[in-house]
Amino acid sequence: MRRVAIVGVGVSKFGYRPDVSLPELAWEAVKEALDDARLDAKDVEAYVVGNVGGWSSEPLPAVVVGEYCGLAPSSGIRVEAACASGSSAVRTAYHMVASGEADIVMAMGVEKMNESPTPTVVEFIGRAGNYFWEFENFGLTFPGYYALHATAYMNKYGATEADLCEVAVKNHYYGSLNPKAQFQKPITVEECLKSKYVAWPLKLYDSSPITDGSAAVILAGEEVAKKITDTPVWIKAIGAANGTSNLSKREDFAGLEAARLAAQRAYRRAGIDPSEPVKHLDVAEVHDCFTIAEIMAYEDLGFAKRGEGYKLAREKQTYIGGVIPVNLSGGLKAKGHPIGATGVAMIAELTRQLRQEVERGRQAPIRKGMALAHNVGGTGHYAFVTVLSL
Amino acid sequence: MSTVVEKLREYLDRAEAEQIRQLDQLVAATGLPVYRDPKTGALIWVDVRELRLRFQLSVNRIAKFVEGLSQERLYYTVCRRCGAKYFPPQADCPRCKSSDMEWREASREGELVTWTVINVKPASFAHNKDYVVGIVKMPDGFNVTAWIDADPSTLRPGMRLRLFVGKRPGENYITYWFRPV
User: What is the ipTM of this complex?
Assistant: First the structure.
């Protein structure tokens, strides 16, 4: 396996995007990534598209995007790992380059969730567990699955709804500094607490929105990467794991086992001390599809001890200047969560963080030169932890 | 007495009736299913080809489970070779690669592990009032996900719940749920 670098990144404006079709939306990120790497579409030897779909009209997104963006006849595939489809695209592209099969590969994600009305989208993501045993008879929703974890976590450790809201307040604050974020306004804990329940104990302001968006990253082998850019960002390690489809089969609801395993695997490969990972990292993007998910992520990643993740939120330790800054992009919560694009957008954001080129007020101080992305698919059904380094 | 099948179809048709009428009028008047999005002014083509999905799921190898429902019983499987227990019931045991399974009836009481109230509902459950979904630990050695027929403010972790199998009121098909003991 050879070293693999990120040499170009692009992210579309996230949000409600009826102004563009799916391939037009993909092009926004693809063009930005190609420009960033000073490459043309024809230089890309293969491409991998993270897309979940169902709510959008194109059943073969990799084909449609490949034609529109001028990537065909290079080989392209679509991959699915639910909300972690983007990370699975990055991982597949990484393997293509690391193995020596290709020198330049693009990983992208694109999702147009607003092609369907909200109840249909709620239906589709509610079916993302074990269809027959969780949805057909019991109508669980995506917030509902995380709410099962939230209820258990809060009962076990005494975290409150206000603690969860602290995560939303932080992520909206950083989202307000990110021009590509879906939500551009800071919120208060009081506003969050007053918002309506979507799946008790989770409220609207605990939840990431329905989002259209795309992201792309270009990966290159070491020799080629050094010719393309003076500031390659290396993929140091990727850890991946899966959880049970039925939540009823989980041993513990106060965390996500798959995320814990993915972190252990990534830390081992990256040489990160699992007892104190924050010592090695400047910044992290974690999967905050719901506020409870970010709190569980702090613990699953070892940023906090078991049962103490909510204290990091309460004590504002995940802002810049705290123990470790988390989700300076605004996270899924405020930047938006275009399912298949999210994991790629995390890698694009961390690449720009490590290059120290994000907007003022949300740039992490880069001292150790390492960053971490934690991307969960479904409710801990898939987990990917990706470590980047300068 | 209509069941969930007809009830849901009627509900969805009613919810979409106005939209369908407007779309039809738009096509009749302009020859195109095209309008400007009121929020952004973006030009939108509304799909004229509706896709309705209703899947055909095989329960052939877990027929005993289905039979159990009609007898108001909940069945799980136990691997005859290694003793692994499965709920949802599995016809195959990946642990020892055996498919020789014994069907056993689940106990009638369990303990509440965690729960939620579904306030914002999927389209196909939108005809229901807010419902409580919980995960219940059974003494048989597995958990069961199901609705909990109770005021959610009275629920506590570890509380005893009783399993019921029967026709769900309002939807009139057989499923299972829990109620506080």
Answer: 0.96
